[in-house]
C-alpha cells in the first residue's frame, strides 16, 4: 500500500474513533463488589446465616481506595458506567496508537547515519 493511501486510511480511522467518543454514555472508574456477610445464627448453634448481597463501588481517590455502598439498582447503573469507562480507555488507546502511526508517516524523521566501515585496527 502506498503511503498516501495508508495516511488516508489512518485519517479515516482517527475520524471514526473520534465519532465513537460521541456515542459514549456516562463513564466512571472503579469496580463493583457484591458482598455477602455470614454470621453465626444464634437460633441454631453451629449454623451460619447469610446476609446480603450488599453492593460496593470501589475506586481510587487521591491515591487511596474509596468505597461507597450502593443499592442493587445503583450497582447495575454504576456497572454499566464502569463498562463505558473501559470502552473509553480502549478508544483513547486506539486514538493514541493511530495518531502515532499517522505522525510517523507524515513528518520527516532524523536522517540515519551511514555505517562506518571497519578499518585496520591500530597497533598497540
Please characterize this protein's 3D structure:
- The protein has two helices and three strands.
- The mean pLDDT is 91.
- Helix 1 packs antiparallel against helix 2.
- 44% of the residues lie in helices and 25% in strands.
- The chain has one domain.
- By secondary structure, it is α+β, with helices and mostly antiparallel strands.
* Cα distance spanning the termini: 53 Å
Please list the strands of the largest sheet in the order they lie side by side.
Answer: 1-2-3
Helix content: 40-55%
Task: Give unreliable regions as ranges.
Answer: none
* Molecular shape: elongated
Strand elements, count: 3
Mind summarizing the main beta sheet? 3 strands, antiparallel
Mean pLDDT: 91
Secondary-structure element series = HEEEH
Share of residues in strands: 25-35%
Overall structural class, as computed from helix and strand content, comes to alpha+beta
Radius of gyration: 28 Å
Oligomer type: single chain
Q: Number of domains in the coordinates?
A: 1
- Helices, by number, come to 2
Topology:
Elements: H1 3-22, E1 31-40, E2 48-61, E3 64-70, H2 72-106
Antiparallel strand pairs: 1-2, 2-3
Amino acid at each position: 500500500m502506498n503511503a498516501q493511501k495508508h495516511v488516508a486510511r489512518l485519517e479515516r480511522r482517527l475520524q471514526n474513533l473520534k465519532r465513537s467518543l460521541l456515542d459514549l454514555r456516562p463513564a466512571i472508574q472503579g469496580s463493583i463488589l457484591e458482598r455477602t456477610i455470614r454470621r453465626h445464627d444464634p437460633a441454631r448453634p453451629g449454623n451460619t446465616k447469610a446476609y446480603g448481597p450488599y453492593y460496593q463501588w470501589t475506586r481510587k481517590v487521591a491515591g487511596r481506595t474509596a468505597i461507597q455502598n450502593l443499592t442493587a439498582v445503583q450497582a447495575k447503573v454504576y456497572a454499566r458506567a464502569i463498562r463505558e469507562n473501559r470502552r473509553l480507555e480502549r478508544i483513547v488507546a486506539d486514538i493514541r496508537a493511530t495518531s502515532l502511526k499517522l505522525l510517523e508517516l507524515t513528518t520527516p524523521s532524523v536522517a540515519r547515519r551511514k555505517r562506518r566501515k571497519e578499518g585496520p585496527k591500530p597497533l598497540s
